[in-house]
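Look over this entry.
=====
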Amino acid sequence: MDEKRREIIVREIEYWKRSRLLPEQYCDYLLALYTEGDRSSAQTAVRRAGAWLHIFFILLICLLLPISVLAIYFTELSFVLQMLLLSFFILLCFIGIWKWRKEARLVHLPLIIGAFLVFLASVHLSDYYFPKNKPISALVIFLNCALWLVFGLRMRLLYLTISGVVGIALLIGSFFV
């Protein structure tokens, strides 16, 4: 088989592997077969670096919520700096959602953390501009829970729907206690 044809087949198999059209084991077998076990070490090094970057970004997303809580409640940062930090973290979550929009397992992590960060930022904003004003705080919490409920129903995400319903129920229940 000529080299050009072999390269086309190898690129196609790599595309199948990335797109998950075939199981990874099959793709690895076909790649080993067509490259005669001669895959370039540069390609594997790039893939390995990409995997580490992927793991780093997942860990970063997981740490955003604890870092946000620490930055808001346990530091002496100014309000503007706190909001800038939260906005940056929310932006990172949106980047994660966009990056993993086709990967069903991973997209939920930045979505959940982003929802909590938006909740945290909006409650902190309302508390800063309207201190000790319970109706405004309740309205902000209700709007966040309603947003979770709408997104949960629209995107068919059970955890967002349940969070929205439970949040609204707890908010209504807190007025009667």
